[in-house]
Amino acid sequence: MEDGNPYFGAAHRPHDRIKLNVGGKLFETTISTIRSGGPDSLLQALSARPIDDSNPVFIDRDPEIFSVLLSVLRTNRIPSTARRFSKQELTDEALYYGIESRLKSAMLPPPLSGIDASVVATIRPASDGLPSAFTAGAGDGSLWIAHGGQISAYDCNLAHAGTIRTHINDITSIRRLWPDVAAVGSDTAAGLHIYDISGGRHVASAHWTDPSDPRIYKALVSAIADSPNSVYASFYCRHKENCILVIDKSTLQVVSEIGRQSGNSMKTMGAGKLTYMPSSSLIFASAVTSGAFGYSGCIRLWDPRSGEVVWETTEPGSGRSCRFGDSFADVDVDADESTMFKVCSKSGDVGMADLRKLGEDPWVYLRDNNPSMAHKGGGDSSSVIHCYRKQVFVARGGGLEVWSQVEDKETEEERENMVSEGSYRRNYVDKLDDLERGTITKMEGGGDRLFISREDVEGIEVWESSNFSVAYGNGQMFNNNNSILSDGKHTDGSGVRGTFAQAKDLYSLSDSECHPFLELLLSTLFLGAAIIMPLGMTFLVAFMSDYWMILFSSLAYSLGLSFLARSTPPVLSNATGSCSLYQPECIGNTQGVLFCTALALIAVGISGHITSLGSFFTEQGKIQTPSDQIDMKRKVP
Amino acid sequence: MPPYAPMMPPSGRKESNIVTIDVGGQIFQTTKQTLTLAGPKSLFSKILDLPASAQIGFPFIDRDPDLFSILLSLLRTGNLPSKAKAVDLQDLFSEAKFYGIESLLVSSLSNPSQFDAFNLEKSLILPLNGRDSPSAISTTMFGSVHVAHGSKITSFDWSLQRKSTILTRFSAVDSLLALSPSVAAAGATDFSGLQILDLENGYVKETLNWENVTRSSSTVQAIGSSPKFLFTSFESGRRNSNSIVVFDIENLKPVSEIGTNEIYGADLDSGIPATKLSWISDYNLLMASGSHSGPSGVCGNIKLWDVRSGNLVWELKEKVDCFSDVTVSENLSAIFKVGVNSGEVFLMDLRNLGAMNTWVPTGETRRVVNGKKEGVGCKIGSHGNQVFCSKGGNLELWSEVFMGSTIKSEDGLQERVYRRNLMGRAKDMGGSRITHLSFGGNKMFVTRKDQQSVEVWQSSVRGF
């Protein structure tokens, strides 16, 4: 309203106003409103014309959409009448009038708040739907997804803008360098490659070469970052030699090589995550590996100009850390706030460090004051951490939580001089149902949207905050849940059904319609085996006595029961360190093998008992009376 | 379209660029330029041609103003507005017919330029009634499709919302080619003669035949067409002769015969009739290909004919890893084939034919041929800049990657880089073996073995 107010009630000067005839409908507005569209707009050009009230300027466009755009210009927000038009239509029309930047800013979602966000869309590319990398780097809410060898671009309305095929077969890192240009890297194809997305062309490539060192051969790219002038790419070779190459953005030539490492120890691994921090012009590089002995990783801050390490830490470290043995599973840096956050692999705690006060052990651990969330989800499943808009999003397995600061006036000063780890509150972003959609593999924020990819799930979820409450009836809610879940995996919580769920996963069936059929199939197979096997067992009894048969089958039975118990995730996780939930992602090959062996052993046990138990008991009874024994001897000549 | 109408002199009202129309009581204003976009045959050109003196008030059209506003938006922007979603497409189409702008409506919804190979999704299933699965399929440029199943031909219009089915004399139609949305040529390998069918009324307009020296009847193996000619590959049972007959597409009179073959003695190769005819307009050549499965494996030939002179321009005999299916792409100027043994896609550049005729594998590595016939039943088709290949129930899309010229040596890539993409989401994968691939408008049509339906793969149209 700020544009209209100065004229309200004041003496109207007629030459401040302008009349427009759009498609036969007359509009009247002020010149300042018209001019607020920007200097290059068509409306700006119109307002510069001499004003002739009797003969307004005629624009041959749809009047209804114009009325929407005019109220965007007047109030800076989208009116409710805009719901009749698609976002694409509004954008096209705004492009015609040259006021697309105003519309864009009015259409942006409200600031992302992790404590009040929901999935608004799932973006699924038409083919090769498993995203291998994505970037929301432009910051306007647009998204580029690398899936297989293709890159699909989605604009700020999340509408599909185009897809190109690269020569790489699986892109594992992507970074948007310019509005139309992306740098991609792969862990199977050598080099950093730069593609023009709008033209669909390969523009340039950069390779790490060193004629003096034969080990530097076909170096792969694991992470890409960029500053206004340079592109930084983390290269590594087959034998783990690694470095960060600095590539000039204007010439696309390699300028320098920083931090070459041999890669022969955990401390010298190639960086899997690179971030350029504009405030300090340092590069944040982190590397994490996980193995049988847990996680290990290192963080380094590089000065790209001198090529020196400014600060580094390695976990598990030398023991000086107060959390020795609890190394981080993932780390992310908030470049705007100059803080970094890590999530611990064992305890699942979130640690924070101020980049301005780095020392031996800079970590401060956030206290969880939310009693309802007390000690839920340790670090036993894979964790991803991402900082966006002063919030820390932590994904544990399939669940998503957010640490956000409580805005408090008293703590304002404290925050200035002290890290206010106590002011962070932890909340779940998602619902319990969302857990089942799969382990979160990557999160990235951009344009007040949070984009999330999950393991083996097609498409990317878009989380947004909204100022509109979405009230819906029961039936609709049911449908909504269905539509979200239909692409995810489905599991059952209870024990027996849980084991069947494991079996289903062995057959890699995710469709819920198959559940009853498979349950029936497995149970029939098991019962059938148990019933039919006594036929063969009777022949076995001829070779060994009933006694041995019972002993053998009892052993098999109890072994089978113990295998069955071990195949459940909570028990198995003690031994293998895998996750302990009754969820498809927690169920691996080990479970499958154990479960099937268990079923087979139990079937052997049951059939052995069926065969021999009866005759063994009668035999036992007969042995006690000698006359019977004699009778038997008579019968057998 | 001008961005806005120029200011006119206050006196010159009658010279005004602005046109006011009253449609069903609602006043619309637009410019002359917008209305002339509708074309000279439309109702609007008549309104524009009205002498200024004859106008008393505004021209009045007694039609629904809501539908008119949608069509006016289409004229202004070239796209349908989203409020058109509330209206049935058939209503809109009949209204567009009234104004004489139906071609604009069709092209806004089903324009071949909207075909986006990477954004194709399995969007529709067109069911076919009865128990016969499709035996032939043919499309027109704007996406209407004719499907032969059993002795019937079902035609779907461009919006795929209307269909009609006619009965033919064939027991099964083996080749079908749409000559226009309502006329198709059909032939069968077990029924003599090529029939030109009127699909709207379901009668045979004309039957075309080829007779060899023995004056016996002949069956149709393949149909192809160019803007001027209709090509038909006939095979006669007597004396194992075959020929490609060129008909004039307008009056359907035979123009010439090319490549007449008869088998003499043991020369089996000459007896292979062409089973696929494709017109290469950039080169003015007709590609005829045929293959034959014999005791020594599959052998076949690909021939390029100059239709005017009737000369054989180029011929390739396929002995090892013969094609299972072959297609020509003019945009990529190359012939593509699927090898019947390897199942791999190969290409041959059309630009330097004749020099060294070797197939180049499009994939990076060539699999070892282990004697299995991996490529049996594979279909290949090209549309736009892409090549589509079916492998069993899956669809592959081959696309060229345009590489900067400087890096090829470093990355060890070939001159032309092709990459394979699997089409569809996980739920669309698999299914019965694909029997036909066809393209029309912004859609791809897929038929599968034993499925009494046609799958439509479509990229989402803006606003719909």
TrEMBL record, chain A:
The keyword ATP-binding does not apply. Pathway: Protein modification; protein ubiquitination. Keywords: Membrane, Transmembrane, Transmembrane helix. Residues 138-464 form the At2g24240-like C-terminal beta-propeller domain. It comes from the Eukaryota. This is BTB domain-containing protein. Residues 18-102 form the Potassium channel tetramerisation-type BTB domain. It comes from Vitis vinifera (Grape). The chain crosses the membrane at residues 520-540, 547-565, 592-617. InterPro entries: BACURD1-3, Beta_prop_At2g24240, MFS_trans_sf, SKP1/BTB/POZ_sf, T1-type_BTB, WD40/YVTN_repeat-like_dom_sf, WD40_repeat_dom_sf. CDD domains: BTB_POZ_KCTD-like.
From TrEMBL, chain B:
Pathway: Protein modification; protein ubiquitination. Residues 17-116 form the BTB domain. PANTHER family: BTB/POZ DOMAIN-CONTAINING ADAPTER FOR CUL3-MEDIATED RHOA DEGRADATION PROTEIN FAMILY MEMBER, PROTEIN BINDING PROTEIN. It comes from the Eukaryota. SUPFAM superfamilies: POZ domain (SSF54695), WD40 repeat-like (SSF50978). This is BTB domain-containing protein.
